[in-house]
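User: Hey, my collaborator sent me this sequence without any context and asked if I could get a structure. I don't really work with proteins. Can you help?
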Amino acid sequence: MASEDVVTKTTSESAVTTIVNFAEEAKLASEEVKAPKDALLSVCKSLIAGGVAGGVSRTAVAPLERLKILLQVQNPHSIKYSGTVQGLKYIWRSEGFRGLFKGNGTNCARIVPNSAVKFYSYEQASRGILWLYRQQPGNEEAQLTPLLRLGAGACAGIIAMSATYPMDLVRGRLTVQTEKSARQYRGIFHALTMVLREEGPRALYKGWLPSVIGVVPYVGLNFAVYESLKDWLIKAKPFGLDDKDSELSVMTRLACGAAAGTVGQTVAYPLDVIRRRMQMVGWKDAASIVTGDGRSKAPLEYNGMVDAFRKTVRHEGVGALYKGLVPNSVKVVPSIAIAFVTYELVKDILGVEMRISD
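Assistant: No problem. I've predicted the 3D structure and written it out in structure-token form, which is a compact way to encode the shape of the chain:
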């Protein structure tokens, strides 16, 4: 009788153990299924935050963005835009309020996915670069340095720029069009179709090389300066800075973003000018649009990035490489600042724990 009780007890314990193990395995399986869903949701939220940041920041400075491009590509023999204030007034008088935001729809259609991919790529690139760095002996506990952040930012910039470059080319051409010029392009998709039909697929990537070279210091320095400056402010607490929660105020982060944008765009600006000019090559209506005067000389043809640099400097001087720098500086300072802060705020709102500073 006792032996039967022992057998019954053993059987019961075995059954309970089996049920518990089954429940634990089911729980783990459920968590494994849930984990990818959570990860995918986190990725989507990160991309949304980056897209919102890009759209908000670019729309806020759209008039200055258009003036910058007009200054970059205008013919030196027919000057219509001689400065920031004068240029904005000229656009307002000749084209009205809508003229100040011409091309912004195309710009946002490009910058929203560009910004989303850029911020997300930076997060992934910084993690990957840090992991590789920690594989080296003695670097097991290393943290991101300004140089590593520069590399991660460069990778993010190249990926994002390459993915959306055709939209950037179309945006540039739509932005240059004025009310007085023949309307060759009616919109984004019409412009893409016309470029493909008249100039071929390769035309969609005109100016890509200087863009790649320029995006390395531009985006790389943006991220490196922004994050490094934030880290320094949190750790050093200069100027009586109080950050009990190890979190900077919105105004302080805006200042960090402004500094980052100023440094990045100053270094990379000449390449942006060359890229924009190369994008206009092959456009049949470019001469009448850029010069605004049938008596003016047609835009120069460029055989490549080096040739574009050489001809620009020879015909217009070194200063031509910085045409539009003033409105661009006024644009970049708030634009980059707004983009960084908006990105972090939107991720906070969406409940995404990981941010670029982490």
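In plain terms: The first helix runs from residue 2 to 60. You can pass these tokens on to your collaborator as they are.
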